[in-house]
Amino acid sequence: MNALAKLKTIAPSINQIVRTYALKSDLKIKWVRPEKIPCIRPEKSGDLQPMPKIAGNELLKDYRESKELETANEHVRNLFTLENNRRREMVENFKEHMVRRVYRHELDYGSMEAKLGLMTARIRSLQEYIEKFPRQSVVKVQLKELIDKRKRFLRYLRRWDYRRFEYILEKLDLVYKPYPTHFHWITRKDSLRKLTNIHCEQIKETRLDEYRKQLESQQLDFLEKKLKTLEFVRKEQQECRVPVTVTPEQIKAVRKQYEELKQRRAAMAESLKEPEES
């Protein structure tokens, strides 16, 4: 019996336990989890331009100076164009074009600039390939490794040769996006806390603006009342033959402020009437 009595006394306290850590806020704040952008996308990698569409009628690299193709039949010539060959040939042509943007001389393929041009061309070709075949996991890994390697190269240049770093970014249409110094998870709780703080700041600013407008609307009457009070106090002090604390300069300054504000309000009222009449 004693055990049953104890359970009856404990039961009401158990029913009063309410979950409070996941209650919905009464504020009109809605948080939507941001879409996760993969690191292989141009938005994260820093590539401002995709791989351009190369003209298909352009000849292959090894046959551009061929004299036989200049006089050859049209059907034979088409066999040696980029359009009728593998995609790898277009990529190689694009690599050569990117290297020519930043190379130091015609045979330069080992400098920092040439390596960055080759990596950029390879990255943009793989990004175009991933858009068509998003399930190629091996290509995704290769692309991620290339992007990380290019970031390391750019970080080294940024530290030791900033002028060359800016030159490469401009020539290759890149934006350097370093890794964040402090990593933090995006959680609903922290995001709602930030949004609540922003919402409270907006409420405070709107109320301060309303109060400021209210005070500005009462400013003209306040100055008029202040001017009359100062004149009355000065007159009474002179009649009672006590030390005068209100000087004529103070009254003159208040009267000037009152007249200027009155003219400003009249000009503002006229400017508001002109659009209504027109």
Count of DSSP strands: 0
Percentage of residues assigned to helices:
55-70%
How many separate helices?
A: 10
Helix-strand topology string? HHHHHHHHHH
Radius of gyration: 38 Å
Percentage of residues in DSSP E strands: under 5%
Return residue spans where pLDDT drops below 50 for at least 5 consecutive residues.
none
The mean pLDDT is 85
What is the SS-derived class? mainly alpha
**End-to-end separation:** 92 Å
Task: Give the tally of structural domains.
Answer: 2
| Biggest β-sheet description | none
The geometry reads as elongated
Topology of this protein?
Elements: H1 2-15, H2 42-45, H3 67-70, H4 74-78, H5 87-102, H6 112-132, H7 137-160, H8 162-172, H9 188-239, H10 248-277
Helix pairs in contact: 5-6, 6-7, 7-8, 9-10
Describe the model.
The chain has 278 residues and is an all-alpha fold. The chain folds into 2 domains: 42-172, no CATH class; 188-273, no CATH class. It is 65% helix and 0% strand. Helix 9 (188-239) packs across helix 10. The longest helix is centred in the last third of the chain and has 52 residues, at 188-239. This is Small ribosomal subunit protein uS15m. Belongs to the universal ribosomal protein uS15 family. Keywords: Mitochondrion, Ribonucleoprotein, Ribosomal protein, Transit peptide.
Structural features:
278 residues; mainly alpha; ribosomal protein
